[in-house]
């Protein structure tokens, strides 16, 4: 699968079907600071992303 980190435009290739939570773990990303999107839909951490699919990871920023 192709994983794009929005903002940095870093692209990573991962193989195999994986749960979103496992993808974030493998990329050493905190699941509380990002959202994962596939085809415009936000994915929950238990969803499985298939090997041939592309996803985007978007960093969530909060300010006051």
Automatic annotation (TrEMBL):
It comes from the Bacteria. InterPro entries: Beta-grasp_dom_sf, Mopterin_synth/thiamin_S_b, ThiS/MoaD-like. This is ThiamineS protein. It comes from Natranaerobius thermophilus (strain ATCC BAA-1301 / DSM 18059 / JW/NM-WN-LF).
């Amino acid at each position: 699968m192709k994983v794009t980190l929005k903002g940095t435009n870093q692209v990573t290739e991962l193989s195999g079907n994986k749960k979103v939570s496992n993808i974030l773990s493998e990329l050493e990303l905190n699941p509380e600071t990002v959202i994962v999107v596939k085809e415009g839909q936000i994915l929950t951490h238990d969803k499985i992303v298939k090997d041939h699919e592309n996803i985007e990871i978007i960093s969530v920023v909060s300010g006051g």
